[in-house]
Amino acid sequence: MKRSLSDANRVISAPRPMRAQLDQLLRKVEARGVRSATRVCHVTAFSGGVDSSLVAALVHRVFPTTSAACLGVSAAVPAAQIEQARDVASFIGVPLWEFPTKEGEMKEYVENVGKSCYYCKTTLYSTINQVADHAVHVLQPTTDQKDQLVLFNGTNADDKLDPTRLGLVAATEFDVASPLDELTKTDVRQMAKYLGLPNWNAAASPCLRSRLQFGVEATQEHLGRVERAEAFVRSIIDLPKSSNMRVRYLAGNRAAVGMWSLAVPGDHHHSLTSRAELDADMLPAAQKVEDAVREELLSIGKCTGWLRSNIKSLTMILQVSAPLFCDLSNPEV
């Protein structure tokens, strides 16, 4: 039988400090809310990741009739992440609003020179405001009350230490509430587990644009290549959902330590390389399927590749030539 958040709440048994921490978080959410609201006006910027899932659960608990989760859909969001978001929202019981975002049409975002995160979040928060306003007119066309829209996000304490997260600037500009801003990522996972969220231990999944080295344009084509490459690596190595894995899209022939540089003569993507990083505990499994990966890559047109482990950093690197990022369904590419 399918479980829900209400079911999980009934079976939770955790130390008192967790209960106290939960109460504190609920108070933070309530303090930013609008108690007299007659419409949906407590909205979480939702990705299906553990951070925003925890926030959506907290907001829905405090404001069960006036909350919603908003999922922005674009080429930077993997299809698997969208499915996870739908599953988690259903588990929580919070209404999920999905809508397309148009950061991919912004030159400043596509250039990917260091500020794409800002333009992405600016577009996201602006669109959420528009979606929420439209929903009010559709769902409650006769209401005269204009309650203030309160936006929440899943920013945690570790995020605030990352200078590349310029989306935090956008959050400040839109007055977005961050109830998890004093919790580390570990704290967030512990609280999500306490609440019984199904994705409490899911691998971190930042947007696909974050896989691109600065200077590699954040086009739909490039983002799609990364998504397909990551799906391929996960399937061939049979990675569990809790294991982190990234395929980095690098510009030029510059490569990380331990990487081999490959170029395919005559291919206009020959200067692009990629790197996959996995959790250290996946190394043995990856090494066992080295031949299988090579054979699979060779079967995809002109693709070649191999696996090698970097003992010092305890990471596994999958080095592939650029054609892996071509249309995998076309062996002539």
UniProtKB/TrEMBL annotation:
**Tree of life domain:** Eukaryota
Q: Where is the NAD/GMP synthase domain?
A: 41-199
Example GO molecular function term? sulfurtransferase activity
InterPro entries on file: LarE (IPR005232), NAD/GMP_synthase (IPR022310), Ni-pincer_cofactor_biosynth (IPR052188), Rossmann-like_a/b/a_fold (IPR014729)
Among SUPFAM superfamilies, the record links this protein to:
Adenine nucleotide alpha hydrolases-like
Gene Ontology terms describing biological process:
purine nucleotide metabolic process
What protein am I looking at? NAD/GMP synthase domain-containing protein
Supply the source organism for this entry. Answer: Lagenidium giganteum
